[in-house]
Design goal:
- There is one protein chain.
- By secondary structure, this protein is α+β, with helices and mostly antiparallel strands.
- It has a domain of about 40 residues.
- Helices cover about 20% and strands about 25% of the residues.
- The chain has a five-stranded mixed sheet, covered by helices on one side. A three-stranded antiparallel sheet has the order 3-4-5, with no helix packed on it. Strands 10-11-12 form a three-stranded antiparallel sheet, with helices on one face.
- The longest helix is centred in the last third of the chain and has 13 residues.
- It starts with 5 loop residues before the first strand and ends with a strand.
């Protein structure tokens, strides 16, 4: 039986909430060395040529199978998130920035307020402290702007509450406000705003660097599309 490999992956607090609530089942991450289509229509990455199929379409599956840094279907990802260790037990209780304080056991009702806890960055989380494990169900590469409304919803974006039952469903605009004050008309627009927000394109001080980035929305980079399901740690 093939060995199941595990790898760490970082998620922000809003995306952790989306995973816990079952709203997020896919993540898109930039391909570090951007692929290109050569003059003959072949799918190329660096000096590697992965060719095309009998219909003249670029072939990506061989690149995906051998090069995805997140693994292949059946492999697992353990989530790194903002965290803190509280309590006097060994090894202690864990609580997390995404759901504090609802996830704490009753015996810890008298712990300090969330604002008084010294939270640790997600990058410093060890495997033993992770509470979320994801099993990869599918991997592919595609251009960022090819995302559909359905896939955008699976990315965990948040719908804005309707004012009336028959009114149009709007979606959160992360580019202007992460708290839902502003909204857009489609899931794809909402995901675009989330991508820009995470990539640093939401604020003037980051605008120049964002526009120069090969991973901006406007650059339409190739991205890894990793679909997953949550499993028992």
């Amino acid at each position: 039986m093939p060995e199941i490999k595990e790898r760490p992956i970082l998620f922000s607090a809003p995306m952790v909430r989306a995973i816990l609530e079952g709203r997020k089942t896919v993540t898109r991450r930039p391909v570090k060395v951007q692929p290109h289509i050569d003059a003959s229509g072949n799918f190329c990455v660096g000096k590697s040529n992965y060719g095309q199929d009998g219909y003249g379409k670029p072939v990506t599956k061989h690149f995906v199978n051998g090069c995805c840094p997140f693994g292949k279907p059946g492999d697992r990802l353990w989530v790194r998130e903002t965290w803190a260790r509280v309590g006097n037990c060994d090894p202690g209780y864990l609580t997390f920035g995404a759901t504090y304080p609802a996830c704490l056991p009753p015996e810890l009702e008298n712990i300090p307020a969330a604002s008084e806890i010294r939270w640790k960055p997600s990058i410093h989380m060890f495997r033993r402290d992770s509470r979320i494990v994801l099993e990869i169900t599918a991997v592919r590469v595609e251009r960022l702007q090819d995302i559909s409304d359905e896939q955008a919803e699976a990315e965990g974006i948040i719908p804005v509450p309707k004012t009336t039952e028959g009114s149009h469903q709007f979606w959160r605009n992360y580019h202007l406000s992460g708290d839902g004050t502003f909204c857009v008309r489609t899931p794809k627009e909402s995901f675009k705003s989330l991508w820009c927000h995470v990539a640093g394109g939401s604020f003037p001080k980051g605008e120049a660097a964002y526009k120069a980035s090969p991973y901006s929305w406007e650059a339409n980079p190739w991205v890894w599309v990793v679909e997953f399901k949550r499993v028992t740690p």
